[in-house]
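Tokens for chain A. Residues wanted.
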């Protein structure tokens, strides 16, 4: 029995005609020759038909339900979820952990204290005309005080006062008590002339980066960015990173506008970095336009992303195979697939990325009319991969082209068979 075998060796496709052991070399009938030629050509086509990505059924079979439990643990485990109204709603409602979930919202009610480097203006009043700090011309004396590295500052007739850690009111009371036995009915006003201890640093894509002093009342993150002259790029393409106490979290500047809970109060010694990083998605497969495509907007739906990608190629695209590949936050993932399903995926070996997100593939069936409505509420996220699979008929068309152009190869195969 003759066989036509195809194999890949070092990236090249080879075809071999084999005869089973025990068969004597003999001349093949023309029928066998035609069968062998056709079979060989089919096998050859399987090696030669080019591919620009997986077919719809290949994506589905690569998901967790398409593989057995005994797969190697090095394989990526993910779920494939069809987009319907429920899924679109859950994904749209889900939000990434923000600044408040990491640092807390804080508050402006905390009483600021004096710190090292602060410059104070201490004004001392006396009732008598000839006191330590008063004359016949004026009833007060103003004394500038800079808090030294040891936290102390000098006041005449009082001596060294530890200002660091005191509030303005407690510093005033301390000076008044120290002067009661020395001055005539003394009274004191302490004001903060220069704030050097309660500062934040802000760098990056702002109009005036540097060290900014905080006011006596609490200030929101957006207010500090405004003090730095505001961001130099649009808020939907600008990220704000806050570092505090060894922890760092980044959010879009747009989220401070859309979600006031992320506009937290800053604290002294906070480090803020503002960076321009346009939101983009990658369009691949049978879309009219492939490559990295910018949002150019605060939000982008799947329908809008499809339009930006130029729609689909009507001659090659599979409308049932519109996919969104992404890493999803755990909370959203659980909301979409359910807690039991999520635990099952973890048991199978699903692993998070460096930011604690898990791989998932969303599928949209554009052959269903309702999909065009559902896709309007399904959000595309930054760095998503939007992939439109090719139709199976495309491979058949490519194969037929190969068959047509390979007629001479079939003739040569039959000639070879005639010589056996």
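Reply:
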């Amino acid at each position: 029995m003759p066989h036509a075998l195809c194999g890949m060796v070092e990236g090249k496709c080879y075809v071999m005609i084999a005869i089973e052991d025990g068969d004597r070399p003999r001349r093949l009938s023309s029928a066998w020759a035609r069968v062998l030629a056709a079979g060989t050509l089919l096998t050859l086509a399987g090696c030669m038909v080019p591919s620009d990505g997986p077919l719809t059924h290949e994506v589905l079979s690569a998901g967790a339900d398409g593989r057995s439990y005994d797969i190697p643990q090095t394989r990526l485990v993910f779920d494939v979820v069809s987009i319907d109204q429920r899924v679109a709603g859950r994904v749209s409602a889900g939000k990434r952990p923000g600044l408040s979930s990491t640092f807390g919202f804080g508050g402006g009610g905390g009483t600021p204290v004096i710190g090292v480097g602060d410059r104070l203006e201490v004004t001392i009043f006396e009732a008598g005309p000839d006191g330590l700090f008063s004359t016949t011309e004026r009833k007060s004396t103003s004394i500038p005080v800079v808090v030294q590295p040891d936290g102390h500052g000098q006041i005449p007739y009082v001596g060294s006062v530890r200002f660091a850690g005191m509030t303005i009111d407690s510093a005033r009371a301390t000076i008044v008590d120290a002067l009661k036995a020395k001055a005539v009915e003394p009274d004191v006003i302490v004001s903060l002339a220069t704030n050097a201890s309660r500062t934040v640093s802000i760098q990056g894509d702002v109009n005036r980066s540097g060290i900014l002093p905080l006011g006596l009342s609490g200030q929101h993150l957006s207010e500090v960015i405004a003090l730095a002259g505001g961001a130099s790029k649009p808020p939907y393409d600008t990220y704000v990173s806050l570092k505090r106490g060894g922890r760092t979290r980044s959010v879009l500047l747009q989220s401070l506008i859309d979600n006031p809970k992320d506009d937290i109060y800053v604290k002294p010694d906070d480090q803020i970095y503002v960076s321009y990083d346009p939101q983009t998605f990658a369009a691949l497969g049978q879309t009219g336009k492939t490559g990295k495509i910018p949002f150019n907007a605060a939000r982008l739906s799947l329908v809008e992303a499809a339009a930006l990608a130029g729609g689909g190629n009507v001659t090659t695209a599979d409308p049932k195979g519109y996919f969104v590949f992404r890493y999803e936050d755990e909370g959203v993932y659980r909301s979409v697939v359910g807690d039991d399903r999520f635990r099952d995926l973890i048991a199978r070996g699903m692993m998070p990325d460096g930011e604690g997100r898990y791989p998932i593939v969303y599928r949209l069936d554009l052959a269903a009319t309702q999909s065009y409505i559902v896709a309007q509420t399904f959000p595309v996220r930054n760095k998503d991969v939007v992939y439109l699979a090719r139709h199976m008929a495309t491979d058949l068309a490519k194969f037929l082209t190969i068959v047509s152009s390979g007629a001479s190869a079939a003739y040569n195969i039959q000639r070879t068979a005639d010589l056996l």
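Residues 22 and 212 are 90 Å apart (CA to CA). DSSP finds 13 helices and 18 strands in the chain.
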